[in-house]
Structure formats: C-alpha cells, structure tokens
Amino acid sequence: MTKRIPVVEKIMSANDQIALENRSRIDNDGVFSINLMASPGAGKTSLIERMMPVLAKSMRIAVIDGDVASSIDADRAAAAGATAVQINTGGTCHLDAVMLRGALDELDLAQFDLLIVENVGNLICPASFKLGVHKSILIASVPEGDDKPYKYPGM
Ligand SMILES: Nc1nc2c(ncn2[C@@H]2O[C@H](COP(=O)(O)OP(=O)(O)O)[C@@H](O)[C@H]2O)c(=O)[nH]1
Ligand SMILES: [Mg+2]
Which residues are CB-neighbours of 67 under 8 A, at least 6 positions away? Predict the structure, then answer.
C-alpha cells in the first residue's frame, strides 16, 4: 500500500498562519496593503514610480520589493519618494509570508497609510503564497500576449 503524505498542505498552512499574523499587524496599524504581481518587465516598478507623485500628496507610502537579487527596485521606489525595503529571495521565485514578516520588521507600519508589496516577477509561484495583504493586483502586459490570464489561472 502506498501512503500519501500531504507535505504541501502543511507547508501552506504554516504560511497561511503567518500571513494571518502579518494581516493583524497591518490592520492594527491601519494600513491598506496590496500585493502587486506580474511577470518580469511588465511594469510593476514603473507603475509604483508613476503613482508615487500622485498618491504621496494624500498618503504616506511604504514599498516592499521582492527580487531574487539586487536592490534596484527598492532604490527606484525610494527615489520616487517611498520608504522602501528590499527583500532578496536568493533564488526563490516568489515572496512568502515569512519573508514579508521580516520586511515588516524593518518598517514602523504606524507611520504609513498604504503598503505596496512588489512581488517577484513571475506569473506562477507568487499566486500560491498568501502574504497577509488586503488585495492582490495583477498587471497584465499586453506585449506578452492576451492569452496569459488563461494560461496562468492561479494568477
Ligand atoms: N513602453 C512601455 N514601457 C514600459 C511600460 N511599463 C514599463 N515599461 C518599461 O519596461 C521596463 C521594465 O519595467 P519595470 O517597471 O522595471 O517592470 P517590473 O519588472 O514589472 O517591475 C522598463 O524599462 C520600463 O521603462 C509601459 O507601460 N510602456
Ligand atoms: Mg520591478
């Protein structure tokens, strides 16, 4: 007889628990939070850069950027006026709740109204890991093909 071990379920439930804790922290400090997702080069950071001058007039904004390496995106968000924290995943193709928790530790959340999390550029893995934020936003980049939402339904 072959036994099945539901490892994936256990990992995900641990992530979900930490995501709930992240959500409590975010809610307690009265911050609205979004998880911005898209493939690499779709324009996530560009959107943040363009939104900053408009939104910063009425709200205080923190940005958490997830990338495999470098602080290029956090530097861009900071140059646009955000308080920015960079997460380097070291090869992992998505952010998870533990990574977000570490980044939240670097912010005084009570000082902000809006938290934008820019996830690692990828249409697959980021859709599977709850972070604890309020809303997820997908940028669908037309040059990649209008069939992509059908091919990556999780996203
Ligand atoms: N033409 C055009 N270029 C864009 C647009 N959005 C982003 N880009 C360019 O595409 C490149 C990648 O954008 P970036 O914001 O870094 O994408 P990210 O990887 O999703 O964060 C940059 O060179 C941007 O200037 C857009 O709407 N139109
Ligand atoms: Mg980016």
Answer: 73, 86, 87, 88, 89, 120, 121
Residues within 6 Å of ligand 1 by CB: 38, 40-46, 121
Number of the ligand closest to the Cα of 140: 1
- Model pTM score: 0.92
Widest CA span in the chain: 64
Place of tokens 């209008």: 146
pLDDT at 6: 66
Here the contacts of 2-5 (C-beta below 8 Å, separation 24 or greater) are: none
Host H or E run for residue 34:
strand 32-37
- Map out the domains of the chain with their CATH numbers: 30-151 (3.40.50.300)
pLDDT in tens, 45-89: 999 999 999 999 999 999 999 999 999 999 999 999 999 999 999
Residue nearest to atom 25 of ligand 1 (CA): 46
Q: Sheet of 61-67: strands edge to edge? A: 83-88, 61-67, 114-118, 32-37, 135-138
Residue of 37, 46, 93 to mutate, ligand 1, most atoms within 8 A of C-beta = 46
Residues with beta carbon < 5 A to ion ligand 2?
44-45, 73
